[in-house]
Write a sequence for this structure.
Protein backbone atom coordinates (compact mmCIF):
# COMPACT_ATOMS: atom_id res chain seq x y z
CA UNK A 1 0.00 0.00 0.00
CA UNK A 2 1.42 3.38 -0.93
CA UNK A 3 1.06 6.37 1.34
CA UNK A 4 -1.07 8.00 -1.37
CA UNK A 5 -3.51 5.10 -1.53
CA UNK A 6 -3.86 5.11 2.24
CA UNK A 7 -4.47 8.88 2.26
CA UNK A 8 -7.15 8.46 -0.41
CA UNK A 9 -8.89 5.66 1.49
CA UNK A 10 -8.82 7.67 4.71
CA UNK A 11 -10.43 10.62 2.90
CA UNK A 12 -13.09 8.33 1.40
CA UNK A 13 -14.03 6.86 4.80
CA UNK A 14 -14.29 10.37 6.31
CA UNK A 15 -16.49 11.53 3.42
CA UNK A 16 -18.69 8.41 3.54
CA UNK A 17 -19.20 8.86 7.29
CA UNK A 18 -20.38 12.42 6.66
CA UNK A 19 -22.83 11.16 4.03
CA UNK A 20 -24.24 8.58 6.46
CA UNK A 21 -24.86 11.29 9.06
CA UNK A 22 -26.23 13.85 6.60
CA UNK A 23 -28.72 11.37 5.19
CA UNK A 24 -29.92 10.27 8.61
CA UNK A 25 -28.60 6.73 8.26
CA UNK A 26 -26.77 7.11 11.57
CA UNK A 27 -27.08 9.56 14.43
CA UNK A 28 -24.81 10.38 17.34
CA UNK A 29 -22.00 7.86 17.57
CA UNK A 30 -23.75 5.09 15.68
CA UNK A 31 -22.32 3.09 12.81
CA UNK A 32 -18.85 2.22 11.59
CA UNK A 33 -16.97 1.95 8.32
CA UNK A 34 -13.83 0.22 7.12
CA UNK A 35 -11.78 -0.68 4.09
CA UNK A 36 -9.17 -3.34 3.37
CA UNK A 37 -5.85 -3.10 1.55
CA UNK A 38 -4.08 -5.75 -0.51
CA UNK A 39 -1.33 -6.16 2.09
CA UNK A 40 -3.70 -7.21 4.89
CA UNK A 41 -4.07 -3.80 6.52
CA UNK A 42 -7.57 -2.56 7.40
CA UNK A 43 -8.65 0.98 8.24
CA UNK A 44 -11.64 1.22 10.58
CA UNK A 45 -13.47 4.08 12.26
CA UNK A 46 -12.56 4.76 15.90
CA UNK A 47 -14.56 3.60 18.91
CA UNK A 48 -17.17 6.03 20.17
CA UNK A 49 -16.66 8.80 17.60
CA UNK A 50 -19.30 10.78 15.70
CA UNK A 51 -18.85 9.30 12.21
CA UNK A 52 -20.24 12.46 10.67
CA UNK A 53 -17.34 14.56 11.96
CA UNK A 54 -14.27 12.38 11.48
CA UNK A 55 -10.90 13.57 10.25
CA UNK A 56 -8.46 11.35 8.37
CA UNK A 57 -6.15 10.79 11.34
CA UNK A 58 -9.04 9.43 13.47
CA UNK A 59 -9.14 6.20 11.47
CA UNK A 60 -7.50 3.22 13.17
CA UNK A 61 -5.21 0.88 11.27
CA UNK A 62 -5.69 -2.83 12.00
CA UNK A 63 -4.12 -6.02 10.65
CA UNK A 64 -6.28 -8.76 9.21
CA UNK A 65 -4.34 -11.46 11.06
CA UNK A 66 -4.39 -9.72 14.44
CA UNK A 67 -7.04 -8.69 16.99
CA UNK A 68 -8.33 -5.14 16.59
CA UNK A 69 -6.51 -2.51 18.69
CA UNK A 70 -8.34 -0.96 21.64
CA UNK A 71 -9.06 2.33 19.89
CA UNK A 72 -10.87 0.71 16.97
CA UNK A 73 -14.65 0.55 16.58
CA UNK A 74 -16.52 -1.75 18.96
CA UNK A 75 -17.54 -3.68 15.83
CA UNK A 76 -14.00 -3.91 14.41
CA UNK A 77 -13.94 -7.64 15.19
CA UNK A 78 -16.97 -8.10 12.94
CA UNK A 79 -15.31 -6.15 10.11
CA UNK A 80 -12.13 -8.23 10.40
CA UNK A 81 -14.14 -11.48 10.52
CA UNK A 82 -15.96 -10.53 7.30
CA UNK A 83 -12.71 -9.65 5.51
CA UNK A 84 -11.13 -12.94 6.57
CA UNK A 85 -14.16 -14.90 5.28
CA UNK A 86 -14.83 -12.89 2.10
CA UNK A 87 -11.75 -12.23 -0.08
CA UNK A 88 -13.80 -10.21 -2.59
CA UNK A 89 -14.99 -7.65 -0.04
CA UNK A 90 -12.85 -4.51 0.26
CA UNK A 91 -15.12 -2.19 2.24
CA UNK A 92 -17.89 -2.42 4.84
CA UNK A 93 -20.46 0.08 6.09
CA UNK A 94 -22.58 -0.51 9.19
CA UNK A 95 -25.46 1.91 9.82
CA UNK A 96 -28.78 2.14 11.67
CA UNK A 97 -31.26 3.14 8.92
CA UNK A 98 -34.59 3.81 10.66
CA UNK A 99 -36.94 2.61 7.94
CA UNK A 100 -35.12 -0.71 7.59
CA UNK A 101 -35.37 -1.13 11.35
CA UNK A 102 -39.06 -0.20 11.32
CA UNK A 103 -39.69 -2.81 8.62
CA UNK A 104 -37.68 -5.37 10.60
CA UNK A 105 -39.83 -4.60 13.64
CA UNK A 106 -42.79 -5.74 11.51
CA UNK A 107 -40.91 -8.98 10.88
CA UNK A 108 -39.96 -8.15 7.28
CA UNK A 109 -36.79 -7.66 5.27
CA UNK A 110 -36.63 -5.18 2.37
CA UNK A 111 -37.77 -6.79 -0.92
CA UNK A 112 -35.00 -6.35 -3.53
CA UNK A 113 -37.55 -6.73 -6.31
CA UNK A 114 -39.40 -3.56 -5.30
CA UNK A 115 -36.87 -1.33 -7.11
CA UNK A 116 -34.48 -1.80 -10.03
CA UNK A 117 -31.63 -0.68 -7.77
CA UNK A 118 -32.59 -3.39 -5.31
CA UNK A 119 -32.36 -6.13 -7.91
CA UNK A 120 -29.05 -4.75 -9.17
CA UNK A 121 -27.29 -3.97 -5.89
CA UNK A 122 -28.83 -6.09 -3.13
CA UNK A 123 -30.29 -9.10 -4.97
CA UNK A 124 -29.95 -11.10 -1.78
CA UNK A 125 -30.34 -9.80 1.78
CA UNK A 126 -29.42 -11.89 4.81
CA UNK A 127 -30.87 -11.58 8.30
CA UNK A 128 -28.56 -11.75 11.31
CA UNK A 129 -30.34 -12.71 14.56
CA UNK A 130 -30.25 -10.33 17.51
CA UNK A 131 -27.00 -10.95 19.39
CA UNK A 132 -24.97 -8.64 21.59
CA UNK A 133 -23.33 -5.73 19.71
CA UNK A 134 -19.55 -6.00 19.76
CA UNK A 135 -19.61 -9.74 20.51
CA UNK A 136 -17.62 -12.47 18.75
CA UNK A 137 -20.95 -14.18 18.15
CA UNK A 138 -22.09 -11.16 16.13
CA UNK A 139 -18.76 -11.11 14.27
CA UNK A 140 -19.17 -14.76 13.24
CA UNK A 141 -22.81 -14.24 12.24
CA UNK A 142 -21.89 -11.20 10.12
CA UNK A 143 -19.14 -13.17 8.34
CA UNK A 144 -21.57 -15.99 7.53
CA UNK A 145 -24.16 -13.50 6.24
CA UNK A 146 -21.77 -11.53 3.99
CA UNK A 147 -20.39 -14.79 2.58
CA UNK A 148 -23.88 -15.32 1.17
CA UNK A 149 -25.09 -11.79 0.38
CA UNK A 150 -23.76 -8.24 -0.09
CA UNK A 151 -26.17 -6.89 2.53
CA UNK A 152 -27.46 -8.03 5.90
CA UNK A 153 -30.09 -6.74 8.30
CA UNK A 154 -29.03 -7.13 11.93
CA UNK A 155 -32.16 -7.73 13.98
CA UNK A 156 -33.00 -4.89 16.44
CA UNK A 157 -29.75 -3.19 15.46
CA UNK A 158 -29.01 -2.05 11.88
CA UNK A 159 -27.50 -3.14 8.59
CA UNK A 160 -24.11 -4.25 7.31
CA UNK A 161 -23.28 -3.79 3.62
CA UNK A 162 -20.20 -4.84 1.67
CA UNK A 163 -18.61 -3.51 -1.49
CA UNK A 164 -15.58 -3.34 -3.73
CA UNK A 165 -15.11 0.12 -2.24
CA UNK A 166 -16.75 2.20 0.46
CA UNK A 167 -19.01 4.02 -2.01
CA UNK A 168 -20.58 0.80 -3.25
CA UNK A 169 -21.09 -0.40 0.33
CA UNK A 170 -22.68 2.96 1.22
CA UNK A 171 -24.90 2.80 -1.87
CA UNK A 172 -26.19 -0.56 -0.71
CA UNK A 173 -27.13 0.93 2.68
CA UNK A 174 -29.01 3.69 0.86
CA UNK A 175 -30.81 1.20 -1.40
CA UNK A 176 -31.89 -0.87 1.61
CA UNK A 177 -33.37 2.27 3.16
CA UNK A 178 -35.17 3.13 -0.10
CA UNK A 179 -36.60 -0.39 -0.36
CA UNK A 180 -37.79 -0.16 3.24
CA UNK A 181 -39.37 3.26 2.62
CA UNK A 182 -41.30 1.88 -0.35
CA UNK A 183 -42.44 -1.15 1.65
CA UNK A 184 -43.60 0.98 4.61
CA UNK A 185 -45.44 3.39 2.32
CA UNK A 186 -47.20 0.43 0.74
CA UNK A 187 -48.24 -0.82 4.18
CA UNK A 188 -49.46 2.58 5.41
CA UNK A 189 -50.67 4.99 2.76
CA UNK A 190 -50.35 7.88 5.18
CA UNK A 191 -46.53 7.51 5.19
CA UNK A 192 -44.77 10.15 3.09
CA UNK A 193 -41.52 9.09 1.45
ZN1 LIG B 1 -24.58 -0.60 15.30
Amino acid sequence: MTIWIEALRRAELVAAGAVLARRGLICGREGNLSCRFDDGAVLVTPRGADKGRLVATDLVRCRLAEPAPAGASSEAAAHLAVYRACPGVNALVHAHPRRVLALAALGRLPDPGALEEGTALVPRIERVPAVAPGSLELAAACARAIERAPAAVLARHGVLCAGDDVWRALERVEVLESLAAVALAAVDRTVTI
User: Anything to note?
Assistant: Strands lie at 32-36, 41-44, 60-63, 91-95, 125-128, 151-154, 158-163. The pocket of zinc ion is lined by residues 30, 94, 96, 133, 157-158 (CB under 6 Å). Helices lie at 3-22, 76-85, 98-105, 116-121, 136-148, 166-187. The first strand starts at residue 32 and ends at 36.
